[in-house]
Amino acid sequence: MTLPDHIELQGEGIGLIAGTDEVGRGPLAGDVVAAAVILDPANPIAGLADSKKLSEKQRASCLQKIQAQSLAFAVGRASVEEIDRLNILHASLLAMRRAVEALSLQPGFVYVDGNRCPDWPYASQAVVGGDNSLDCIAAASILAKVTRDAEMVAMDAMYPGYGFARHKGYPTPAHLEALRELGPCIVHRRSFGPVAQLL
Question: DSSP label at 29?
Fold first, then answer.
């Protein structure tokens, strides 16, 4: 699939182009966090890539550039309660919609990581593996991951014993063992199998 670049889309009168991505579909705890970024075509950012392929230090460096050089950026989320009520797919789409709506500049076109777009009025295209092929989505993935990771570290202090700072809520053996010993806490997703089995 050949994706139009900024110049082609702007030549068609599209205007500003945003990318959006979410982080946190797989964890057993915490919100799903999305970000949206409008990059400045005249001020490209070197080193952007899928956040999962970057080290923590590389993500922090990229985040500084995103915040300094992009035209607009924002974070959106869906809560644990919304995840349990809507399911993780629809909660992820809701988080991305909220991130785009929170941008200080509204885009004329949005690239969405994944295989479907949220229900919204924006002209948009879903791109499977977009965080590997489009800088605007890669930037959003970095912003979302750094934001969510920091929140899970803070959550570790609020709910000690689960190891949130280490595994960020993902179902690692250590997390599953802590769940069995301590039981679920308020930030665990009740609709997810390993948590539901303990309720």
Answer: B
Nearest Cα to Cα of residue 27 among 93, 116, 92: 92
Q: What are the CA-CA distances from residue 145 to residues 79, 86, 120, 131 (Å)?
A: 16, 22, 23, 12
Q: Where are the alpha helices (DSSP H) in 87-163?
A: 88-101, 130-133, 135-158
Q: What's the residue count for the chain?
A: 199
Of 140, 174, 173, the residue nearest 59 (C-alpha): 140
0.85 exceeded by pTM: yes
Q: Could you tell me which residues come within 8 angstroms of residue 88 by beta carbon, excluding any fewer than 6 positions away? A: 25, 32, 189, 191
DSSP state of 116: -
Greatest CA separation found in the chain? 59
CA dist., res. 147 & res. 104, Å (int)? 18
Q: How far is CA 135 from CA 35, 130, 191, 194, in A?
A: 13, 8, 33, 35
Res 11 pLDDT > 60: no
Mean pLDDT in residue range 107-118? 97
CA–CA distance, 29 with 164 (Å, rounded to integer): 9
Domains annotated for the chain, with CATH where assigned, are 6-150 (3.30.420.10)
Q: Are 187 and 155 in contact (CB under 8 A)?
A: yes
